[in-house]
């Protein structure tokens, strides 16, 4: 489904959306903003409806207002309340943390794996 083109309405025209460039989906009231590194689009849509239309597994919800592309996820904070996506720090809700972690390939399974020896 990733090869299938997606279009959004922008000022009475249809614009092709390159999902590979989208880092963040941000919910703003009744609107959803697609954020890429160099541009953004805003459409009248809900987060829930949009995520159901996009390819499964590409985006993961991290907060009631945010979903992120796993391709741009850089870091999850020590306190499990923050993620960094494309250089942008975003809030991570505790309710969405388990789903996020379940979608990652994590090397080093114990808590001590990331600490330096010595």
Automatic annotation (TrEMBL):
SMART domains: LytTR (SM00850). One of its GO terms (molecular function) is phosphorelay response regulator activity. Keywords: DNA-binding. Residues 6-106 form the HTH LytTR-type domain. InterPro entries: LytR-like, LytTR_DNA-bd_dom. Transmembrane segments: none annotated. This is LytTr DNA-binding domain-containing protein.
């Amino acid at each position: 489904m990733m090869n299938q083109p997606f279009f959004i309405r922008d000022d009475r025209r249809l614009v092709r959306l390159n999902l590979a460039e989208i880092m963040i989906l941000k919910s703003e009231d009744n609107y959803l903003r697609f954020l890429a590194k160099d541009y953004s689009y805003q459409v009248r849509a809900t987060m829930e409806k949009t995520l159901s239309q996009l390819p499964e597994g590409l985006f993961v919800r991290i907060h009631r207002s945010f979903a992120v592309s796993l391709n741009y996820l850089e870091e999850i904070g020590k306190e499990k309340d923050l993620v960094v996506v494309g250089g942008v720090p975003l809030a991570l809700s505790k309710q969405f943390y388990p789903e996020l972690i379940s979608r990652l390939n994590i090397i080093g399974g114990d808590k001590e794996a990331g600490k330096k020896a010595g």
